[in-house]
What we know:
Layout: H1 2-7, E1 13-19, E2 28-34, H2 52-65, E3 68-74, H3 76-82, H4 84-97, E4 105-109, E5 120-123, H5 126-129, H6 131-154, H7 160-163, H8 169-178
Parallel strand pairs: 1-4, 4-5
Antiparallel strand pairs: 1-2, 2-3
Amino acid sequence: IENAVRRIGFALVAGVDEVGRGSLAGPLVVAAVILDPAHLISGLRDSKLLSAPARGRLHDEILRCATAWTLTVAEPFEIDRLNVHKATLKAMRSAVTTLVPLPDFVLVDGFRIPGLMIPQRPIIKGDRRCSAIAAASIIAKVTRDRHMRDLHEQDPRYGFDQHKGYGTKAHLSAMKKFGYSAVHRHSFRPASL
Length: 193
């Protein structure tokens, strides 16, 4: 997809993706990446289809080889204040507009980013169809997973190192026992609680 966009004259094509949108705890992390077409990175694919060691290796290679990359985080209090959709779009816009150099075209996983003054195209399942979006998904996932492990070390009661804040049976059980923590999204109310 990036090559087709480059063929019509856009040189700096960014991919944007988020991780943590459906989580009950922890931040939502958005990455934006402009890959260098002269530096092909083998093995790029949707972060969910990769093992943790493979994601870690690709994460480091992307950071070394990309023309530009950036991360934006929406914390739980911001998600509660705005709602998850608005917080996602705000974080995506921020990630794109803080890239240096700025892209001249943006490929976004699933969404159109309102108010973005750069040509863009939303791609459904973009992390499986577009290298730059896959690279963004890897950076966002590795970053968020590391952060969730840090949160686990600060408060091991919830098991964030295992489920990364998603609504697993073990997480819901811990929430029933201990209640919501400061890193939970208080606007997210699972039916089982």
